[in-house]
């Protein structure tokens, strides 16, 4: 038996980093919450923590990427980290039917 994980670079990490940095630098936000476990975001998130409080939600099972860790008092302080649980994900799902749309069978 073999397990294969195929990870393709889509540039979404660059988009997230760019938009949150723009929002912070232009003063559009008082705080930021990022949902990711992508260690490519380490530098921009560290920069953001120097300017506004930031929460980081890890949506993946297992440990958060080490490069994303820090201290609640870094920079301006007030930062926090959260590991998203299966229970929280299930509780946040939309109903099986929304208006005329229904999830496919087997989901």
Chain-wise SSE layout:
Blueprint (H helix, E strand, L loop, with lengths): L11 H14 L6 E4 L6 H8 L4 E5 L21 E4 L2 H6 L5 E2 L2 E2 L5
Parallel strand pairs: 1-2, 2-3
Antiparallel strand pairs: 4-5
Helix pairs in contact: 1-2
Compose a concise summary of this entry.
The protein is of the alpha/beta class and 107 residues long.
Sheet with the most strands?
3 strands, parallel
Discrete helix count? 3
Strand order of the largest sheet: 1-2-3
* Topology as a string of helices (H) and strands (E): HEHEEHEE
Mean pLDDT: 90
Protein architecture, described:
The chain has 107 residues and is of the alpha/beta class. The protein has one domain (13-95): 3-Layer(aba) Sandwich (Rossmann fold). The protein is 26% helix and 16% strand. The chain contains three helices and five strands; from the N terminus they run H-E-H-E-E-H-E-E. The protein has helices at 12-25, 42-49, 86-91, and strands at 32-35, 54-58, 80-83, 97-98, 101-102. It has a three-stranded parallel β-sheet, covered by helices on one side. A two-stranded antiparallel ribbon has the order 4-5. Strand 4 and strand 5 (101-102) form a beta hairpin. Helix 1 (12-25) packs parallel to helix 2. It is globular. The two termini are 24 Å apart. The model has no long low-confidence stretch (mean pLDDT 90).
């Amino acid at each position: 038996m073999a397990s294969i994980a195929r990870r393709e670079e889509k540039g979404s990490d660059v988009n997230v980093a760019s938009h949150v940095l723009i929002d912070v630098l232009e003063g559009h936000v008082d705080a930021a919450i990022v949902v990711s476990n992508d260690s490519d975001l380490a530098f921009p998130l560290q920069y953001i923590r120097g300017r506004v409080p930031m929460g980081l939600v890890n949506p993946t099972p297992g440990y958060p990427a080490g490069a994303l860790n820090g201290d609640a008092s870094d920079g301006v302080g007030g930062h926090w980290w959260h590991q998203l649980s299966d229970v929280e994900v299930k509780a946040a799902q939309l109903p099986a039917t929304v208006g005329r749309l229904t999830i496919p069978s087997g989901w």
